[in-house]
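Quick check before the chapter quiz. The format below is the same one you will see on the exam, so make sure you can read both the input and the output lines.
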Amino acid sequence: MRTISFELNEEDERLIRAYAKSKNLSLSTLVRDTVFERIENELDLKFYNEAMHRHKESSETISFEDMMKDLN
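Here is the expected output.
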């Protein structure tokens, strides 16, 4: 395992420790999970925006009724 350290003021440290304790998490787990969630959210947004851009460039829409006809 690797260690990453960062600096916090006392108030931020107390808040983070109290939050971790209230969720029954270690500081490491809280920080790791929070960072990974942030990365995942940013990637999801990036992929969504790319997909919407592609959709707007070449949108092929179909009505619900036509889709149901095609499926039957």
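If your answer matched, good. The two ends are 55 Å apart (CA to CA).
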